[in-house]
Protein 1
Amino acid sequence: MPASSNGLDPYVPERGELGYDVLHYDLDLKYSINSNRLDGRARITIRPTDTLARVSFDLAGLRVAKATVGGRAARWQQRAEKVRVEPAASLPAGRTVDVEFRYQGTPGPTSSVWGPVGWEELTDGVLVASQPSGAVRRGSPATISPARRRRSGWR
């Protein structure tokens, strides 16, 4: 899928981040069916395509408790459905780094042009689906673009 004139993915232009490529998502999730509570750790390996003073990720309905960049504490700010992380020093283009989040909350569906998507509570668990808009944004911090594939590991 070609990029739009502004460089964003035309399928979901309100999502994602253009300043880096995601190489890998490593997620450690603890979920309680009875309370619909999710506690998670996300380690996201990125490679900046430009020198970056900050990076942002999509995250809806869950609250970040801690963020690190390259194993060092980082300042972060969460507003609406974005988490912006400011490392101690700018991230140079081409150098791989891990961004890690600790987060928690009670996830639910997110609104999209297709209606509510991404999180459906069942009597014996939960169904997490509907890429690219709902699934990862409801279970972990992410940057979403169907045109940019990445590996992931879930526990």
Protein 2
Amino acid sequence: MRLVLANQWFPPESGWGGVAMWNDAMAHAYRELGHHVTVIASRVSPHIPAEQESDGIRVHRLLVRDAYRWRRLPGIGRYVREALQLAYARRVDRALRELHRAQPFDVVEFAEVNAEGFFYARHPLTPVVVSCHTPTFVLQRYYGPREMPFDTRIVGWGEKDMIRRAHALTAPSRDMAQTIANECRVPVESIAVIPNALSGEWRVASSDKSFAPRPMPHAIDYHIVEGKPHLR
């Protein structure tokens, strides 16, 4: 199959946060299973290549700019982040359609956070899978105004809309699956629980203070359930 992972965080350029590690792990797992994998991610500098290929995975990066001064404006500044996120979602939609015209793919997988698949999911060319890591509408419960000084209502609505329109949903735990089901009013049975994939070398006793894992956990210990890699 030809698979596309669409998420702005894909290492090493994005760093090694949780969603970035998931995308890296799953891209390589899918590739090892024999699938053709393409990634659509972001880049913050024009010096980072817009297209590159590594380990048989093709990566397209969309250039993004931080509107720091706009975000600092009184009043309207709190809505700038949402406007940028929706603008990026529109660019992802266009990039996917251009990619599909050039070389049709079979399925696209989004992370739910920031509603990157909002526009594509409304008029999809292929089945859409949404991986529910922790959406903004859940994250905002655990942050105070100083930690999250921007509006999240529009993006949160977009995340929920995208989740409801998905052809398939995943979550890393039963608790997150239940949270998504309650918030988005979808059957919890429709959400496949797939634990986060990590390299075997990350599984060490917490008492081993000397352990220093490699920064790129590609070797995944996975097995197949209903055609998708699961952590063993």
Protein 3
Amino acid sequence: MFIYRKATNDDLERIWNKDIEQNKDDERYLNWKRQYIENNKNDNCATFVVLNNEEPIGQVTVLFSPKCSAVKNKTSLCNGTNTANMNAFRIEKEFENQGHISKLVKLAEEYAKTKGIKFLTIGSEAKESRNLAIYLHFGYTEFVTSMIEDNDLILYYMKTLTKGSKKMKFNCLIPELRVFDLEKSKKFYTEILGFEIAYARNDFAMLVLGNCQIMLQQLTLPSTNGSWNVTDDMKYPLGRGINFQIKLPDISIVYNSLKHHNIEIFIDLLVSDYQENDIINHVLEFLVQDPDGYLLRFQQDIEDWHFGDNKQMADELFDLVLKGDKTATSYLYNKNDKLDTGFSILANWDKTKKIILQTTKIYKTTFDNVTEEHAFKEGE
């Protein structure tokens, strides 16, 4: 049973005591704990946690005051009035890719609104394209600034929480889906797929995910005077004969969330090649039905890759992965490399065999610090 809430003092104590235990030789953690709890107590920040059997397993923090060390003298990120900073996203490994951070972010954003916050900022290392894709997914799309921190380039983006009377920019084509149960549909699209509600009325909701827009309208039967219903014979599944393509930078976020919520995938992951004049678009996609039966096709661009620089190595390592003997790899890191989790297509040397891989974790270390566990998972 998972519980999401604003952290209590006891929650904070347990979070930091665990960190201190894991970093016994680093005295900074004691000072960080003191500052962290004091800032929460004084409303300079607010931490939100997810609990599993009453134990904190993940957290997100909103920094409201520029007095907080992470945003000190960075007023474009946190100004103490209407702009705050999202910080310290953490989730224990075994609970990754289950939608917990997404729910904590939404909880934190709603709380920030009650504090009069209109803008939230968030930062990510430029090379962490996976994180950037997630933040885009959360709606942090407006670039704010870039900074060098600990020799890494950090990109900061902003999300507007309160739109005021500013007119929304509508796509030139937006599907409006008639639904049997508007509240059920809103919950599916927001809590599972990650859409946000741009605005809503009693029987209507405008949903946004990245650059995608979908309208939901409560279906009223029997038809009333002036109704747009083509027929009263509206039965599940609705939308027969159509599917809606939703293109994202990384579909693994949505895919993992659907799996976690035990939602049946209508057509599972497949690699497709679509010809566009003299260009071939190489994509990864899957289809899922929403609560009313409408088919949603999530799609991302994808590239094939292989191990090594020769046929023997590429084919041998491909076979090890296919057998399940190889579940990890490593390579010489270049500072300009982009580190991506998510889906990719592994091929043999001749590209006559291919498999879909999902990378769940990437980390940097020195050669002499590679663990025995990692070496064993390399399978060679």
